[in-house]
Amino acid sequence: MKIDKAYIFSLVAPLMIFLSLTGLTLRKDSKKIFYLPIGLMGIFIILEKEFSRGIQRKKILNKIKSYKKIK
User: Fold this and answer.
1) Start-to-end Cα distance in the chain
2) What is the pLDDT of residue 70?
3) CB atoms closer than 10 angstroms to residue 41
4) Which pLDDT value is given to residue 1?
5) pLDDT computed for residue 59 by the predictor
6) Distance separating alpha carbons of residues 49 and 47, to the nearest angstrom
7) In sequence order, which residues have a C-beta less than 8 Å from that of residue 14 and are 6 or more positions away?
8) Burial class of residue 38, CB neighbours in 10 A (0-12, 13-18, 19+)
9) Are 33 and 45 in contact (CB under 8 A)?
10) CB of 61 within 8 A of CB of 45?
11) Cα Rg for the chain, rounded, in angstroms?
12) Count of CB atoms within 10 A of residue 54's CB?
């Protein structure tokens, strides 16, 4: 069974953010800095996916518009 990367990212990114938030709230002050990178990576994965999805939608819309002009 082949698993798509988009499904993995959609599950891993919120988990990373959740782990980061729980680590920041439950750990002592000296250990909190270690949870920032994992939270930032989770946010980056979500934002990157959203931007790439928007770009793909614009490309598809432009292709549809170009076919309408030809006919």
Assistant:
1) 42
2) 66
3) 15
4) 61
5) 92
6) 5
7) 42, 46
8) middle
9) no
10) no
11) 19
12) 10
Q: Position of tokens 């994992």?
A: 38
Please report the pLDDT score of residue 65 as a whole number: 86
Q: Say if CB 12 and CB 39 are below 8 A apart.
A: no
Q: Which two tokens stand for residue 36?
A: 């920032």
The identity of residue 11, as a single letter, is: L
Structure tokens at 62: 């432009």
Q: What is the pLDDT along the chain (71 residues), one digit of tens a residue?
A: 677 776 776 788 899 999 999 998 888 888 788 888 999 999 998 898 889 889 999 999 998 888 876 65
